Inverse folding.
């Protein structure tokens, strides 16, 4: 047995997990009346964490129900939980009368099992559900033994102790057995966990072995996930050896199991009844779709089986959509190269907007980042010099007498030919969206370079040199339509030049009350009047948010997005501003994506980053020839463990004369792993992308 000191970090993950599960249950995601007895603290978790633990609970529920359904009517069966922690499965299943003919065995460190038994005995509700204990087993590892419930304190790395404890407890190794590990095997070294898996395959001829654990360690989210578990002293010890679905399948097959299937959490959620999906999506205000889908892309159920349970693994994982994922993989051609530049912390933010000004400066407004040592929504504007590789930035002092700029994220900012900037929409919280249209005029854009600063001056505030003024736009209704855009965020806006007239096209987005919008409005910038585009026409896009838009001649190009069901979309639509007609382009094997940015270069639609639900066909940088609809996708470069990059919630600008795209910011709140802000500016060479 290992010393207690080496066990503590892993036990800490169990204690934190129970608190998160209890938070999830309190919010109504999942019914488990027993969690309250095991949670040391009653702490509210974020909606993202609640969703993450909900899908974990549904994975376990599906596993149990499939096991009991597969063996319906079989007189004897048993369930073994490896690394059980404070799991409530025994009490939940017993209350549902699923365990009348099953034995439930829980295995974990002796200290954990002892704590759990003490907790059970201290609550009358739990104690009443415990079976009467049998005479004390001679094996000290058997902490409790009842008619259908056995608690064993053992180190899973010491197989002979576990084997002996199970034998001394009198279990049947021939009996159909479900063995499962819920985020426990992943903390064991590969040699020991392989030995345990192979031992189980030889010891239990009629069994299924199911693990819930992490995969895909090498992308940005995977690196952040790895660093989190390392930081709390519980590194993921097998994820680098078995990093993906195929390697997980091969692992179990090579360790003597006859069948193995994999179920991803995005696939599991898509398999739930639509009513249940809608219920979960309506429980809390939620606006972290990217991290939700990324979390689900990095957790799986791996199920191996044999003997009487040989069909169990395929039944458990039936209904997955791996074929679609493989179809999308076929369009990924090469691995992209990019150049990474370090920059100051003021550019580390997500959900912001960046606009390239004619003089080589980039204006950044809003977003979520760090201010005064705290993570929060950011106000004010920043000017960054992109003519050099130092990306020196300076605060833009804004005369905002009406406080109309606010601290907003997921808004749109566009530049007019008279150098005014127009800010549209955004939100402060998912219940509060901005409805004002704000115009921003920069008075002066002369940056002070570091060489010009006095040696005794640490911070340059120079509002007299770099300043702007903001005003709320008073709009008018057009003569043909009395509507104007409702408050929204995660929408798009772009400027289209039609002769001498400039128009701003606003499409889609989210609105308070879980609404997803399909409306499209056009703002005429001379008279400041709105016109609504008819949506009841062939080729018009449906409701969506987190899509992207750009302009090709007099045509607005809308790509990707998330629909009403929170499903990433694989679609490109165009709106001809001369005719106000929509059209959907047919692009074979177009990879779904959202939370990306887009640009036009030489009749090519360039799609930068984004998120979807297919981990092996996740968005990189896509190129669509808008004349031929030919499409190809580039993998992102290998990630740096010290500087992981999440290519979503970012902003990007196109430098046509340099044939470059510059990417600023990006990141998100990564499930339980903390807030991540990209720390660099990324440069992409368009010549490499398009030739």
């Amino acid at each position: 047995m290992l010393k207690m000191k080496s066990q503590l970090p892993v036990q800490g993950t169990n204690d934190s997990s129970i608190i998160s599960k209890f938070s999830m249950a309190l919010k109504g995601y999942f019914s488990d009346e027993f969690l309250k007895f095991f949670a040391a603290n009653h702490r509210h978790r974020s909606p993202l964490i609640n969703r993450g633990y909900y899908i974990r609970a549904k994975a376990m529920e599906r596993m149990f129900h499939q096991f009991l359904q597969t063996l319906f009517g079989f007189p004897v069966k048993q369930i073994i939980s490896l690394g059980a922690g404070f799991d409530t499965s025994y009490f939940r299943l017993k209350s549902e009368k699923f365990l009348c003919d099953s034995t439930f065995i829980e295995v974990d460190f002796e200290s954990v099992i002892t704590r759990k038994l003490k907790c059970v005995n201290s609550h009358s509700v739990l104690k009443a559900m415990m079976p009467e204990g049998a005479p004390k087993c001679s094996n000290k590892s058997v902490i409790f033994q009842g008619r259908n419930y056995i608690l064993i304190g053992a180190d899973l790395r010491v197989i002979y102790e576990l084997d002996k404890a199970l034998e001394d407890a009198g279990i049947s190794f021939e009996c159909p057995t479900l063995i499962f590990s819920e985020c426990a095997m992943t903390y064991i070294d590969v040699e020991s966990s392989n030995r345990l898996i192979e031992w189980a395959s030889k010891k239990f001829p009629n069994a299924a072995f199911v693990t819930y654990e992490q995969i895909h360690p090498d992308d940005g989210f995977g690196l952040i996930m790895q660093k989190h578990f390392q930081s709390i002293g519980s590194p993921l010890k097998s994820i680098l050896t078995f990093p993906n679905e195929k390697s997980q399948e091969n692992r179990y097959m090579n360790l003597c199991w006859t069948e193995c299937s994999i179920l991803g959490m995005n696939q599991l959620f898509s398999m739930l009844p639509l009513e249940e999906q809608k219920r979960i999506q309506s429980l809390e205000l939620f606006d972290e779709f990217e991290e939700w889908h990324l979390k689900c892309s990095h957790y799986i159920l791996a199920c191996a089986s044999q003997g009487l349970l040989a069909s169990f693994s395929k039944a458990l994982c039936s209904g997955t959509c791996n074929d679609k994922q493989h179809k999308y993989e076929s369009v990924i051609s090469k691995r992209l190269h990019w150049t990474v530049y370090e920059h100051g912390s003021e550019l580390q933010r997500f959900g912001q907007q960046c606009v390239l000004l004619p003089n080589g400066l980039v204006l950044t407004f809003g977003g979520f980042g760090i201010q005064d040592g705290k993570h929060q929504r950011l106000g004010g504007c920043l000017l960054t010099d992109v003519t050099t590789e130092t990306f020196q930035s300076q605060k833009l002092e804004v005369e905002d007498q009406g406080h109309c700029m606010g601290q907003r994220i997921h808004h749109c900012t566009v530049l007019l030919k008279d150098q005014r900037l127009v800010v549209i929409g955004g939100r402060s919280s998912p219940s509060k969206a901005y409805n004002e249209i704000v115009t921003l005029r920069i008075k002066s854009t002369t940056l002070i370079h570091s060489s010009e600063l006095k040696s005794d001056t640490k911070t340059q505030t120079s509002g007299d040199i770099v300043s702007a003024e903001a005003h709320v736009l008073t709009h008018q209704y057009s003569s043909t339509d009395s509507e104007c855009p409702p408050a929204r965020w995660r929408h798009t806006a772009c400027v289209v030049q039609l002769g001498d007239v400039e128009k701003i096209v606003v499409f889609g987005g989210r609105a308070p009350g879980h609404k997803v919008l399909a409306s499209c409005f056009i703002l005429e910038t001379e008279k400041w009047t709105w016109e609504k585009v008819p949506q009841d026409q062939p080729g018009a896009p449906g409701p969506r948010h987190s899509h992207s838009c750009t302009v090709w001649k007099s045509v607005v190009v809308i790509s990707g997005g998330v629909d009403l069901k929170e499903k990433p979309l694989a679609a490109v639509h165009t709106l001809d501003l001369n005719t106000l007609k929509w059209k959907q382009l047919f692009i074979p094997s177009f990879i779904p994506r959202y939370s990306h940015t887009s640009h036009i270069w030489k009749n090519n639609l360039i799609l930068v980053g984004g998120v979807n639900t297919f981990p092996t066909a996740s968005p990189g940088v896509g190129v669509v020839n808008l004349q031929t609809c030919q499409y190809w996708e580039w993998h992102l470069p290998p990630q740096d463990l010290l500087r992981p990059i999440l290519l979503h919630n970012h902003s990007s600008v196109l430098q046509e004369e340099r044939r470059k795209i510059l990417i600023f910011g990006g990141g998100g709140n990564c499930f339980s792993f903390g807030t991540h802000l990209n720390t660099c500016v990324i440069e992409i060479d368009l010549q490499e992308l398009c030739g």
User: Anything to note?
Assistant: The CA atoms of residues 143 and 287 lie 45 Å apart.
